[in-house]
Amino acid sequence: MMTIGVTTLVLLVVFALLGQAMAPSWKVEPFEDHIALGSSDVAVRANRPVAVHEGAYRVRTVNLTVTTGDGARIRAVLREPVNAPSDRPACLFIHGSGTGSAHDFADIASSMASAGITTLVPEKRLDDYSWIHRDYARFADDYGRALTLLRSRHGVDPARTGLYAESEGTWIATLMTDRDEHIGFAILSSAPVVSGRQLMAMAASAYLQRAGAPAQVSDNVAKLMSMDFAPFDLRYGDFDARRYLPSLTMPVLVNYGVLDTAMPIEQGAETIIAAAHRSGNDNVTVRYFRANHQMRAGEGLFTPGLPLADGYTHTLDDWVNAVAAGTKADGWATARIAGVTPDQRFTAPRWTSSGLIGSLGLLCAMTVAAVLAPLLAAVAALALAVGKRFGTRRSGTRRSGIRGSDTRRAGSRRFRLRHGRFDAGLARLLVVSGTVPTLIVLMLHVYLGFVGWSAVMLHDRTALLAFGWAALRIAALGNMVFVAWLIVRCRDELRRRGTDAADRGADPHDAGPSGDVPGPAIVGPGHWLTAALVVVGALLSLAVMAFWGLFGL
């Protein structure tokens, strides 16, 4: 028992240290550099007031077709102000993640058109768009073709034609401004600013905190976000959005919803302001609305039919008309940064180097192997049982057909599995050591899935998640005792395997419950393979548990 205790302690120390080595040297830190607001009013007004506002014109809708660079034809919806003056401003709309219809943005585009601004909403091609692959350069090409079409429309002033982009679309927008210095203005709403990897690290931490996840679970975010996603073609997660921010040399309007925990709502605005300033552009306006990520009046990410935030369309329309009229950085009568006070919880990390395990593919392979090894052990044990049954039957036939011979030894030499079986105690230990770690690993992933679901759905499960995590840690520690017991038992069997045969002058494979030579409990390579698979699976399971922090000190 002392040996089992020592082995358990050694395993605990080893896997606790392994868990620490798997953790990266960075973690998601609380955000402290809060932005200062000049006013709580989201309205924008130039020193020279603009006479045209929302509702000034009737809107005419026209369905168009845009031909992309590779010959594809995509639909687009154009909205024009009826009887508006020529040389008017125009705005191209760029979709965010998961949207792509030409009928999106209908409320915002119609509002702009009623304020004298021609708008165009093209489709976003989703044929090569998935959660594992996104080609932002191709999207920039497609939207660039749509921009060319919009500039060519009668009554549109190409020099006063700009972009409206949301969320992921702001990455595409900055790609376009980097390629085309003649874009008249840029409206960036819910802009991630940082890379997808850095964004997810911050957003996941915020969502997990809101769901009440234990601190050890939240710490896993850094481990995951530091990994190489290349085996799963998730390279878009490393798209360097900040690389293109210096191209924001035109007037810029930055909008965020203060209820949006998925975006760096303060850090992002500060980053855009600083990048534009370094490029000589101080004409950057920032507005915070009581809104969610979609700039809608509500917190739910998946709640349909929510209205736009109060004042949102008025702000957009008035700002576009003001910059189209030539308003410079010093030409605003309203505060540069204004609206509802934001409260960004966490900082999007600047760098995301990995710990000991740097590949998501390796983690997945290790998890699969941890589950697969005991299954292979079960198959091996079944094969041994079938072989033993077959060997016993053949041995019995030989014994009845040959008289006066040492049938026990003859049969055992030819069919060496006849007495080769695990004793009851070892068999139970193998079953427990093969089954329990697998169940814990599976339950761990079920738990992590539930945590993620609770976070996305904004459900506070603090007590339940704390109980579940404590139960998993207790189960993991209990499992470690059984693994230590199995390791000690296998070590003892290795010692007995040679010692018994040498002391008694017997073949170890002849030992069995009905023989006169009590031999070891693990006999033959098949039995050792079964035991080895169980041990390997158990150790891999412990490594997986260590990665997720179940042995954290």
UniProtKB/TrEMBL annotation:
SUPFAM superfamilies: alpha/beta-Hydrolases (SSF53474). The chain crosses the membrane at residues 360-386, 426-447, 467-488, 528-551. It comes from Bifidobacterium simiarum. This is Alpha/beta hydrolase. GO terms for molecular function: carboxylic ester hydrolase activity. It comes from the Bacteria. InterPro entries: AB_hydrolase_Est10, AB_hydrolase_fold. Gene3D superfamilies: alpha/beta hydrolase (3.40.50.1820). Signal peptide: none annotated. Keywords: Hydrolase, Membrane, Transmembrane, Transmembrane helix.
